[in-house]
Design goal:
By secondary structure, the chain is mainly beta. It has one domain: Jelly Rolls, CATH 2.60.120. The protein has one helix and twelve strands. Strands 1, 3, 4, 6, 9, 10 and 12 form a seven-stranded antiparallel sheet that branches. A five-stranded antiparallel sheet has the order 2-5-11-7-8. The longest helix has 4 residues. The protein starts with a strand and ends with a strand.
Length: 168
């Protein structure tokens, strides 16, 4: 049996797997491209983007998360602010509540300032982990995309891609 250490794995999270808070969200399709659409409204919403990655109880096996790409569109009116944060949820072995902790990341050069993230544009933003993390079998990673929308901002999320090393 062979050993696998592939540095080019990725897993796409489609928009229908994402969940938004505050505001009105609906799935829509245009030219056969699906998106999670946030209706215009002066409010702050958080969109949870789950990253469903292979995990393992064996040290340094399964997925080692390196970065996350997020595709979204802002049209009509620019947002007041947009930010993204990566979290690691740890599931306990006992009946205590799970805990979540933020994971240190950096934005790509096209989104590393607040002004670049809120613009009217089609965006592909990459969050790169400061230190790539192996996914243990009692952990789950997700991104929270926070959109502080102006009254006429319309946002569409097309999905996200987790990029990782796979080892088995």
């Amino acid at each position: 049996m062979g050993y696998v250490n592939d540095t080019g794995f990725s897993k796409f999270t489609p928009p229908e797997m994402c969940t938004g808070t505050t505001g009105t969200f609906a799935m829509a399709v245009a030219s056969n491209v699906w998106s999670l659409n946030k209706t215009a409204g002066d409010n702050t919403s958080v969109i949870k983007i789950p990253l469903l990655l292979p995990s393992s109880s064996v040290d340094r096996q399964g997925a080692q998360l390196a970065s996350v790409d997020i595709w979204w569109d802002c049209s009509v009116g620019a947002n007041d602010a947009v930010s993204a944060a990566l979290y690691k949820l740890t599931l306990p072995a006992t009946t205590v509540a799970p805990t979540a902790a933020s994971v240190a990341t950096s934005y790509d050069t096209a989104h590393d300032t607040a002004a670049e993230r809120l613009t009217l544009a089609q965006h592909k933003m990459t969050l790169t982990l400061t230190t790539p993390e192996w996914v243990d079998d009692d952990e789950n990673f997700y991104v929270e995309l926070t959109i502080d929308a102006a009254a006429n901002s319309v946002d569409k999320l097309f999905g996200a891609r987790a990029n990782y090393v796979f080892r088995a």
